[in-house]
Amino acid sequence: MRGALLDDATNVSEKLGALLAKISVDDENDVLIALEVDLWPEDKEPVQALAVSKLLGLETEFVSSWSTIPFAWPGLGELTSNTSEYTQMMLDAYAQYGGLPDRNAKKE
């Protein structure tokens, strides 16, 4: 299911959402997938995950979850599908708004 979610992901935020999704299976083989709202849009249908569910004959439910994601500005990942570009954008945002020490500062 996670692989299918990764197939559905079109940007870095969604890829992170797929990787961090909580996927559980109950005693009746029904699947529950909780996707973080800051990483996976609530209105985005996971087409490939639904196709895999259908092929396997599984009932799959998707729910939104809210948690404290491990970094600020989660929306940055919606601007690119390139992870190194995303990382640079995140580092630039932290440098501009605070949060990370300046890696280029001279130690005294």
- β-strand percent reads 5-15%
| SS-based class | alpha+beta
Percent range for helical residues? 25-40%
Largest sheet: 3 strands, mixed
One letter per element, helices H and strands E, the order comes to HHEEHEH
Alpha plus pi helix count: 4
Radius of gyration: 17 Å
The overall strand count is 3
* Count of spatially separate domains: 1
Unreliable stretches covering 5 or more consecutive residues = none
Global shape? elongated
Q: Separation of termini?
A: 51 Å
Strand order of the largest sheet: 1-2-3
How confident is the prediction overall: mean pLDDT?
Answer: 83
Question: Helix and strand layout, with pairings?
Answer:
Layout: H1 2-8, H2 12-20, E1 22-25, E2 31-36, H3 47-56, E3 60-65, H4 83-97
Outline:
The protein is α+β, with helices and mostly antiparallel strands and 108 residues long. Helices cover 38% and strands 15% of the residues.
Task: Explain what this protein looks like in three dimensions.
This protein has 108 residues and is of the alpha+beta class. It has one domain. The relative contact order is 0.18. It has 4 helices and 3 strands; from the N terminus they run ααββαβα. The chain has a 3-stranded mixed sheet. α1 packs antiparallel against α2 and α1 runs antiparallel to α3.
